[in-house]
UniProtKB/TrEMBL annotation:
Lineage of the organism: Bacteria, Bacillati, Actinomycetota, Actinomycetes, Streptosporangiales
Protein name, as recorded: Probable membrane transporter protein
Transmembrane feature ranges: 72-94, 100-123, 180-198, 204-225, 232-250, 262-281
Locations listed in the record: Cell membrane; Membrane
Annotated InterPro entries: TM_pro_TauE-like (IPR002781), TSUP/Inactive_protease-like (IPR051598)
Similarity comment: family membership: Belongs to the 4-toluene sulfonate uptake permease (TSUP) (TC 2.A.102) family.
Keyword terms of this UniProt record: Cell membrane, Membrane, Transmembrane, Transmembrane helix
Highest taxon above the source species: Bacteria
Membrane topology, from the record: Multi-pass membrane protein
């Protein structure tokens, strides 16, 4: 019973983070399942089965808050489903230990870029509103779906930073679109796991508890991403990406850092991340105050023009 309660809380927390930042449900949940001895294929299958419900609930919630670009969902979701099915069917005989550090290095680079760009410059507006091309989204979906199925998570960490870095879609719609398209990925991966390993290694009680926690958190997460300022949200997402992928790299065979080195690295990143978010909050408030002053001045000029005497010279 205690394990089920813990899984429910993990499902709630993971979906709260995933729904508001566009990543981490699969990574968080799979990590816990692996820690208690579940084999990788069964752990990933369990999480993806739960994600069928959580991503559906999350997608509906984001849709209600107008956080979704359906064109992006179609362009990235279908290739993502293909990649997820392929990844699920080969997971039993595939080791991602070598590929994980390479992917983490790429994601870390994107994470540093996103963190710096949103913290220093705020929401990128130069490309905002420009369409995201299928030639960009389709390969991204294929890679993200494959990594998600083989690693038990990765759809958000691959898709969210790449689309954020393009600067063509505001953060809340990036997150909403990634969460909505993940439903297709979860369904395809689950079908692939049933084909590859069957259902005998899957604990459906765990699936139900993870699902319940995620469904409860989904509406709250969708509301949260709708109301958090884009600049602050971008800094928060960037910090998650950096911290997650530095952790993977430090624990990989490439580096194999000691516990002390890892602790120092995590503390350093956490301090920088907190400072970045605090700076973004301060700059956001300053920008809002500036916009308010400009709006008041414009209104005063408008009223002054309306009150000008009819016979006054031009």
């Amino acid at each position: 019973m205690r394990s089920l309660i813990l899984l429910g809380l993990v499902g709630f927390a993971a979906q709260l983070v995933d729904g508001s930042l566009g990543m981490a449900y699969g990574v968080t949940s799979t990590t816990l399942l692996l820690a208690i001895g579940t084999n990788p294929a069964a752990a990933s299958a369990t999480v993806h089965l739960a994600e069928i419900g959580t991503t559906l609930a999350s997608g509906i919630s984001h849709w209600r808050f107008n956080n979704i670009d359906w064109k992006v969902v179609a362009k990235i979701g279908v290739p993502g489903a293909v990649g997820a099915f392929a990844g699920a069917t080969v997971l039993s005989g595939l080791s991602t230990e070598t590929a994980a550090p390479v992917m983490s290095l790429i994601l870390l680079t994107l994470g540093v870029y996103v963190l710096a760009r949103f913290t220093v410059f705020g929401l990128p507006k130069g490309n905002l509103g420009k369409p995201l091309r299928k030639r960009f989204l389709a390969p991204l979906g294929l890679v993200g779906g494959f990594v998600d199925a083989t690693g038990g998570g990765g759809w958000g960490p691959v898709g969210t930073p790449a689309i954020l870095a393009s600067g063509r879609l505001e953060p809340r719609k990036v997150i909403g679109s990634i969460d909505a398209s993940e439903f297709l990925v979860a369904v395809a991966a689950s079908v692939g796991f049933f084909v590859g390993i069957g259902s005998e290694n899957i604990d459906f009680a765990w699936v139900a508890v993870l699902l319940l926690g995620g469904v409860v958190a989904a509406p709250l997460a969708a509301w949260l991403v709708r109301h958090v300022p884009p600049r602050v949200l971008g800094s928060a997402v960037g910090g998650v990406i950096v911290l997650t992928n530095v952790r993977t790299l430090l624990r990989s065979d490439w580096i194999d850092a000691s516990g002390g080195v890892q602790t120092i690295a995590y503390i350093t990143i956490a301090v920088i991340w907190a400072a970045a978010v605090a700076y973004s909050v301060r700059e956001y408030r300053r920008d809002r105050e500036h916009e308010t002053v400009e709006a008041v001045e414009a209104e005063l000029r408008r009223r002054s023009g309306e009150e000008e005497p009819a016979g006054a010279p031009n």
